[in-house]
């Protein structure tokens, strides 16, 4: 089949997210200027540069108490910092609990009983039990076409790695089976790896 998004797809559910998958999940921790804490997952997320290391995530909806966006972007606008935490398969239900449209006063760390720790290079909390956490300084927020579409870019200023995930000098994702988002309400996890040699190796 072929369809133009502006004309609709005619299917029971939108296939777009299922086509662009799997997508890693950024479990984004932020702190408001008033000291309030927020933790929320975003599946429009990826690394975008090596030197200096940089990442991005996108927010595509809004909450009535945050105007044109959600808590994460609103806090980052105000403070210029955020922490991205990876999500292990065993943390799937806890992560899902933090995805609700909770009021901005809600501390999702407390709501989902997530243990927190203080970041080293930025004034922000991180998920203490995460396999990895990336402390980030905001570089820019881009407004995309669409009413509530924002992309947040950040430079990674500190990286926490769980020692249990290091094997033979490599960060082994099979030790925690990272959660990834598919289409609809579907998820998957990484359980095995294979390697390919580049032509110029």
CATH C-level class: Mainly Beta
CATH fold category name: Pnp Oxidase, Chain A
Outline, from the CA principal axes?
globular
Mean pLDDT: 97
Q: What is the total tally of β strands?
A: 14
Largest sheet: 7 strands, antiparallel
First-last Cα distance: 39 Å
Strand order of the largest sheet: 3-2-6-9-10-5-4
Number of domains: 1
Question: Quaternary state, please?
Answer: single chain
Protein structure class: mainly beta
Discrete helix count: 4
| Rg, Cα atoms, Å | 18 Å
Percent helix range: 10-25%
**CATH architecture classification name:** Roll
Question: Poorly predicted ranges (pLDDT <50, ≥5 residues)?
Answer: none
Order of helices and strands: HEEEEEHEHHEEEEEEEE
| Approximate strand percentage | 25-35%
The CATH homologous superfamily corresponds to Electron Transport, Fmn-binding Protein, Chain A
Architecture blueprint of SSEs:
Elements (H helix, E strand, L loop, with lengths): L15 H4 L3 E2 L1 E6 L5 E6 L2 E5 L4 E6 L11 H9 L1 E5 L6 H6 L10 H4 L4 E3 L6 E3 L4 E12 L6 E12 L4 E2 L2 E2 L7 E3 L5 E3 L12
Antiparallel strand pairs: 1-13, 2-3, 2-6, 4-5, 5-10, 6-9, 7-8, 9-10, 11-12, 13-14
């Amino acid at each position: 089949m072929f369809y133009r998004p502006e004309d609709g797809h005619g299917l029971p559910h939108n296939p777009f997210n299922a086509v662009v998958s799997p997508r890693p999940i950024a479990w984004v921790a932020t702190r408001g200027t008033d000291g309030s804490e927020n933790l929320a997952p975003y599946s429009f997320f990826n690394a975008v540069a090596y030197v200096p290391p940089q990442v991005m995530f996108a927010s595509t909806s809004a909450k009535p108490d945050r105007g044109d966006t959600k808590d994460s972007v609103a806090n980052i606008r105000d403070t210029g910092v955020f922490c991205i935490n990876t999500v292990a398969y065993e943390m799937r239900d806890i992560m899902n609990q933090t995805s609700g449209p909770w009021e901005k006063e809600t501390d999702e760390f407390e709501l989902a009983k997530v243990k927190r720790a203080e970041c080293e290079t930025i004034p922000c909390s991180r998920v203490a039990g995460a396999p990895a956490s990336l402390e980030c300084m905001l570089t820019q927020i881009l407004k995309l076409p669409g009413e509530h579409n924002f992309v947040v870019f950040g430079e990674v200023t500190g990286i926490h790695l769980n020692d249990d995930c290091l094997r033979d000098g490599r960060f082994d994702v099979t030790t925690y089976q990272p959660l990834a988002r598919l289409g609809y309400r579907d998820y998957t996890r990484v359980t095995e790896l294979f390697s390919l040699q580049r032509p110029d190796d």
